[in-house]
Design a protein that fits this description.
binds tetrahydrodeoxyuridine; 5 strands; 4 helices; alpha+beta; Cytidine Deaminase, domain 2
């Protein structure tokens, strides 16, 4: 199964009763292992979490911290674009060259690198001595 297929299958399990906007994400780690995530909303709206965050949590729990590739899919008009917060979360674990495949449910796809999605990302090494 492709990484995008994994994200598409995961999306069915999204918990999005408020926005009705189901999102699925899948991450291939450098180890080769694949982790999926879905958005999980909450009646207290800001407490909801994105699909990418769920996939990252699953990856870290399993002991992987290096992202090789990402796929994300939703029922959007154009290939779904990771939110700003998720771009930063992905940048924590993925190099600038990591490819992020964005898709919708009618076959539109777009690929961008993490550097293109978040130019000038803030990284740990920017903190220097403190
Ligand atoms: N959402 C994601 O899970 N990932 C994205 O890349 C875009 C937005 C979720 C958050 C919320 O549950 C719903 O989509 C509508 O914003």
């Amino acid at each position: 199964m492709s990484l995008l297929d994994t994200a598409r299958t995961a999306r069915e399990m999204a918990y999005a009763p408020y926005s009705k906007f189901k999102v699925g994400a899948a991450i291939r780690a450098a180890s080769g292992a694949v982790y999926a995530g879905v958005n999980v909303e909450n009646a207290a709206y800001p407490e909801g979490t994105c699909a990418e965050a769920g996939a990252i949590a699953a990856m870290v729990l399993a002991g992987d911290t290096k992202i090789a590739e990402v796929a994300v899919i939703a029922g959007s008009t154009v290939p779904v674009s990771p939110c700003g917060g998720c771009r930063q979360k992905l940048a924590e674990f993925g190099d600038a060259s990591v490819r992020v495949t964005m898709a919708n449910m009618v076959g539109d796809e777009r690929v961008m690198t993490l550097a293109e999605l978040l130019p000038g990302a803030f990284h740990q090494d920017h903190m220097g001595e403190h």
